[in-house]
Amino acid sequence: MKAxxxxxxxxxxxxxxxxxxDERGFFCRTxxxxxxxxxxxxxxxxxxxxxxxxxxxxxxxxxxxxxxxEAKLVRCSYGRIFDVVVDLRPQSxxxxxxxxxxxxxxxxxxxxxxxxxxxxxxxxxxTADTSYRIDRPHDPSEDVTIAFDDPELAVPWPxxxxxxxxxxxxxxxxxxxxxxx
Length: 181
Fold this sequence. Notes:
With 181 residues, the chain is mainly β. The chain is 9% helix and 39% strand. The strands form 3 sheets. Strands 1-2-10-7-12-5 form a 6-stranded antiparallel β-sheet. It has a 5-stranded antiparallel β-sheet with strand order 9-8-11-6-13, with no helix packed on it. Strands 3-4 form a two-stranded antiparallel ribbon. The longest helix has 6 residues, at 33-38. It is globular. The N and C termini lie far apart (37 Å).
């Protein structure tokens, strides 16, 4: 497994595993504390794992945590997703930068998203399972959602949206969210 810095978002990393494939399928390590530690992250800081299953066209996000925020490790364990990170840390050299990635079950690449960044994704395949590892227990009172189609962000979502939560559909613009932060 190797760690690759993401220049578009300071402190973000892609962790690329080395899958071993044979006639049975494949095996790969999707988390390695030593590799995580090698880029200055505390592997023991991650306290909660979650999984979402989405169908093609489903859009989830853009989500952010208020307060101290939360760092995430995100991986598409099955299928493919179009993943989006927006740096909303005012002191960051990449403040307001939008970075996009395709994550897939084929590569098992994990994306580290620093605290203070908004995150969302769209399922590109019939089924897409997305795994999250976060560094703080979830507190719904800290949930913040930003409009996925905010023109200021101009995220190039690859597919028409087939479904999204009411919260995501009714999310305010980035400008509105920043007014209340």
